[in-house]
Amino acid sequence: MTGLGLFLAVTVAMDYGPPSVEKPLGALPVVRDYLARLDVAGTIDRLAPMRDKVNRATHGDVIAALVANRLTSPTPLLHVERWARQWAVEEMFGLAPDVLNDDRVGRALDALAPVCEAVVGSVGAAAITAYGIDVSRIHWDMTVRHEALSGRAGVEGPRRPAVAAAG
Questions:
Q1: d(Cα 33, Cα 37) in Å, to the nearest integer?
Q2: Domain for residue 10, yes or no?
Q3: Does residue 146 share a domain with residue 85?
Q4: Which residues are bridge partners to 48 per DSSP?
Q5: 152 in the same domain as 106
Q6: pLDDT tens profile 85-103
Q7: Nearest one of 41, 38, 11, 40 to 131, comparing CA atoms
Q8: Model pTM?
Q9: Which CB contacts under 8 angstroms, 24+ apart, belong to 30-36?
Q10: pLDDT of 106-139, one tens digit each?
């Protein structure tokens, strides 16, 4: 491009700015606000602090993005980075898509595993407080088994509590 063409291209860029990029928002703003109100990332960061401070995102930040991923695009937890590039994750969560690479997601999930029950309890308590839930109408069932989660169909899996609201 030379002469008049270059001049017009520069003039257009100066007048209108860079080209726009369209990304789906879906429920991301709602999910972000719920996660913030329940302090999910902060709870995870307190219960599973990072050993090194070199990462650009905390375990809580990554898990919050994974929750958003599950709620907006329920597909296998693989290539979350690709989802983050296609959706407005950086704009909503302040995380660059490359932060959500498979290795970083794996490290966050590994850090969450030993404190998962404490996170569930803390976030549940935060929800009760934040939304004024009447706890006399909640039943925490400690007998539920999730065989599918154990990875071995037909074999008893780990016992996990289930919360059900009384109707």
A1: 6
A2: no
A3: no
A4: none
A5: no
A6: 999 999 999 999 999 999 9
A7: 38
A8: 0.73
A9: 31/67, 31/68, 31/71, 31/72, 32/64, 32/68, 32/92, 32/93, 35/64, 35/67, 35/68
A10: 999 999 999 999 999 999 999 999 999 888 877 7
